[in-house]
Amino acid sequence: MIMTCRLVPLLKPRLGCKSMRCLILLCPFLFLQEKGNFTYCPAAGLAVGNECSEFAGWAFPFPGVFLLEEFINQDEESEMVQLMDQDDWKLSQSGRRKQDYGPKVNFKKKKLKAGGFIGLPSFSQEIVQRMKAHSALEDFFPVEQCNLDYLPERGSAIDPHFDDWWLWGGRLVSLNLLSKTVLSMSCDSEDSLQLFATHSQGTCENVDSWDMDHSSSPRLIPYKEVTVDILLPRRSLIVLSGDARYKWKHAIYRKHIEHRRICVTFRELSAEFTLGGKQEKLGKELLEIALTFQGKPV
Length: 298
Ligand SMILES: O=C(O)CCC(=O)C(=O)O
Description:
This is AlkB homolog 4, lysine demethylase. The chain is an alpha+beta fold. The chain has helices at 8-11, 17-26, 74-85, 125-131, 242-246, 280-290; strands at 38-41, 46-49, 58-61, 65-68, 90-91, 97-101, 104-106, 111-113, 144-150, 158-161, 168-177, 181-186, 192-198, 212-213, 219-222, 227-232, 236-240, 249-252, 261-269. A hairpin with a 5-residue loop joins β5 and β6. The chain starts with 7 loop residues before the first helix and ends in an 8-residue tail after the last helix.
């Protein structure tokens, strides 16, 4: 019998986190999450209903995603990973390992300390410089880098979440290394989402242009029924901002980790820590440290 993720909440209260992880590792087929019912189409900026779902032929605008393929080449990728692997990886939640370059932060108490932080790593200097060639990132100054290491054997994943809003700014920039994956977007809003009929059928890859038909009646569905898959090719860079940052949660499900994968996320400061903000001085201090590019994981 195949159980889907719908049954996980029923089991969770009975099993501790450790037992849940054992069960997941031993019986991965028990925990197949359902496939997203929409796929993000970068060329059109639309979430398009999957062919085999009840939403085939329907789409809706999905703003706030900017995806660049082949942001780095194969040699650069190998060199980056080799350098990362020279430092220790710390075990993190949900089967991930992590390396962090940034201030020590207590998000609950909204407190942070620069102590121990000596900057982003040297191998990121060229990457950050390269981002600036794109108008969406020309004024992007990262103050934190977090490397996450995912492995299928560890059942690595990250549950749907928002990144912090108090310290981190409007753009989350991630580099996807070593293998392709899927970033799954979901929204807990009680509101309804308006879908538009599309003239084209098929998948994003085999259709030149997606035309939304604004003249025929739209269809309303609960936000909660929607998952949008954003396909992340190996060595691609993704920027989440606007609705994709603040309205939709993001997640990586176990089933989408087929091989080792490393995600390198760069974060900028929020308005409170930048020009004219309450903590502008601290923000400036952190940024000066970050951009020395002399860092080691904290
Ligand atoms: O692995 C990813 O692509 C997402 C990472 C993430 O959501 C996070 O670091 O908060």
